[in-house]
């Protein structure tokens, strides 16, 4: 038993050897819950945040991936700097109508998109099907499971996951697991 424990502690201490690194952008309209999600993922704490005025970045360790996460404000003026953050990004979770512009931007070609439909705890929250329709994603998403066969096809991984960061604390974990499989 001792030997097994020792073996795993050695493995743990070597984990950095096979850790992957990725850059990720949190994009979405203001009040969507991006900063709240970032801090939930970072230290499982629920904190009230003022609207994000200037971009901040945090390190997140999820599974074997070390994410450098950039949290950008969602209000109109803050959205102007989104473009400055596109270079060499591995995945940008995002929100409403700006999505079209992001999806057709050459700087983000091939980058996986995780769309999180947050606040499903709110009464009358739009169901997933309506959100997909509203975002123009009906029929465009690539599948929620392990997507064998997408690699090398040039098809951009794109999927919608509904979640509740605050009240139910659910949904976003599945989203991040889905995204992680596309980070090389
Ligand atoms: N009911 C509910 N409220 C949430 C949820 N997630 C976040 N909120 C609330 O939504 C508000 C906005 O959250 P923020 O994380 O500051 O939003 P943001 O996307 O960072 O906004 P900007 O920084 O302005 O772009 C806060 O009052 C959060 O507590 C959720 O899942 N359910
Ligand atoms: Mg914010």
UniProtKB/TrEMBL annotation:
SMART domains (UniProt xref): ARF, SAR
| Cellular location(s) | Endoplasmic reticulum; Golgi apparatus
PROSITE patterns assigned: ARF (PS51417), SAR1 (PS51422)
One GO term of the biological process aspect: vesicle-mediated transport
Grouped into one coarse class, the protein's main location is: endoplasmic reticulum
Any one GO MF annotation of this record: GTP binding
State where GTP binds.
28-36, 74, 118-121, 165-166
Binding-site residues for Mg(2+), renumbered to this chain? 30, 35, 52
Under the heading Gene3D superfamilies, the entry gives: P-loop containing nucleotide triphosphate hydrolases (3.40.50.300)
Please name the CDD domains in this protein's record.
Sar1
InterPro entries reported for this sequence: P-loop_NTPase, Small_GTPase_ARF/SAR, Small_GTPase_SAR1
State the UniProt keywords alphabetically: Endoplasmic reticulum, ER-Golgi transport, Golgi apparatus, GTP-binding, Magnesium, Metal-binding, Nucleotide-binding, Protein transport, Transport
Q: Which GO terms describe its cellular component?
A: endoplasmic reticulum; Golgi apparatus
The family this protein is said to belong to? Belongs to the small GTPase superfamily. SAR1 family.
Question: What's this protein's name?
Answer: GTP-binding protein SAR1A
Q: What organism, scientifically named, is this protein from?
A: Eragrostis curvula (weeping love grass)
């Amino acid at each position: 038993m001792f030997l097994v424990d020792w073996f795993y502690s050695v493995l743990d201490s070597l984990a950095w050897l096979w850790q992957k690194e990725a850059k990720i952008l949190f994009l979405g309209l203001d009040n969507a819950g991006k900063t709240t999600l970032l801090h939930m993922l970072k230290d499982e704490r629920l904190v009230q945040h003022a609207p994000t005025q200037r971009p901040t970045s945090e390190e997140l360790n999820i599974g074997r991936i070390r994410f450098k996460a950039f949290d950008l404000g969602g209000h109109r003026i803050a959205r102007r700097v989104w473009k400055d953050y596109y270079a060499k990004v591995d995945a940008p979770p995002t929100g409403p109508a700006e999505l079209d512009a992001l999806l057709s931007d050459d700087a983000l070609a091939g980058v996986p998109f995780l769309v999180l439909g947050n606040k499903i705890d709110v009464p009358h929250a739009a169901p997933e099907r309506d959100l997909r329709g509203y975002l123009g994603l009906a029929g465009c998403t690539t599948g929620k499971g392990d997507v064998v066969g997408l690699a090398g096809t040039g098809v951009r991984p794109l999927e919608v996951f509904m979640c509740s960061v605050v009240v139910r604390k659910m949904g976003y974990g599945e989203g991040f697991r889905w995204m992680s499989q596309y980070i090389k």
